[in-house]
Design goal:
The protein is an alpha+beta fold. Helix content is about 20%, strand content about 25%. Strand 18 and strand 19 form a beta hairpin. Helix 5 runs antiparallel to helix 6. The radius of gyration is 18 Å and the shape is globular.
Length: about 270
């Protein structure tokens, strides 16, 4: 039986003979059901008309995306860290085929997968099985896993070390378990859209729902800034191609939070 994939959010579901009746991730107020209603595809169908797009983002950091764009359109990031226990795939995409798998193996494979929040869970179990890698998800977002699997490892608390200089930080905000990855060797923060790199890439922003324009409360912003304070980073890599703060990233978070709080009247 196939594992159906939601066309709007890209999440792969447990196997079933028929498409699921609904996608809880899209019905949540942080996402949306597409204007044509709930639609489904499968990995086999994706493989027929989509291809991988791989780009070097920086030394030791490779972007993995999908052409043409699918669902939310994010790209994953492969952190090459052989000295820290092996490569880490940050966030995920729905597409995985033999060509993409071979190219990732050429880059050193995947030792671990970590995902910022449920909108990017996509085909994480396919990736985990293909590379025999655990998937690290914050336990606060357990309810949003649509395809359970023994390779998914839930973690609690505020931080988790994946290897030397690779630290998961729970910031919350967009989702209760919203997580970023601090990459010390790259002087970088991999943020998904928990910390959103905006069009003016000197700045970031923070939202409860991006498509539905629901802001976060002031206390959530203060918590995010406080959680990042102990960590140094110059660059911030967001969820999409070219969504990158190239310099002064930590200061960008501070001034962006101050601007956000002023807009809320704080």
């Amino acid at each position: 039986m196939p594992h159906f994939i939601c066309v709007t959010c890209g999440s792969q579901f447990a196997e079933s003979a028929e498409p699921p009746p609904r996608c809880p991730i899209c019905e949540d107020e942080r996402q949306y059901v597409g204007r044509d209603g709930q639609r489904w595809t499968t990995l086999d169908e994706l493989r027929r008309d989509h291809r991988a797009e791989i780009r070097e983002e920086a030394p030791g950091l490779v972007g993995i995306g999908c052409e043409p764009s699918f669902a939310i359109g994010q790209r994953a990031l492969l952190v090459q860290a052989p000295g820290a226990g092996g490569n880490v795939l940050w966030d995920c995409i729905s597409l995985l085929d033999d060509e993409l798998g071979a190219r990732v193996e050429e880059l050193g494979g995947i030792a671990a997968i970590a995902i910022s929040h449920p909108h990017y869970y996509s085909s994480m179990v396919e990736w985990a099985r293909a590379f025999d890698a655990p998937v690290h998800l914050h336990a606060a977002d357990r309810e949003w896993v649509m395809r359970p699997d023994e390779r998914i490892e839930f973690w609690d608390g505020e931080t988790r070390e994946l290897g030397e200089g690779l630290t998961l930080l729970r910031l919350g905000g967009h989702f209760e378990g919203g997580t970023v990855l601090h990459w010390a060797a790259g002087d970088a923060l991999l943020s998904g859209d928990i910390v959103q790199v905006v069009q003016d890439r000197r700045w970031v922003s923070f939202m409860y729902s991006y498509p539905n324009l629901i802001p976060l409360p002031a206390e959530a912003i203060r918590r995010i800034v406080a959680a990042l304070e102990p960590y140094e980073f110059d660059r911030i890599y967001g969820a999409w191609w070219d969504a990158v703060v190239r310099a002064d990233g930590k200061a960008a978070v501070r001034r962006s939070a101050e601007r956000y709080l002023r807009a809320l009247g704080h």
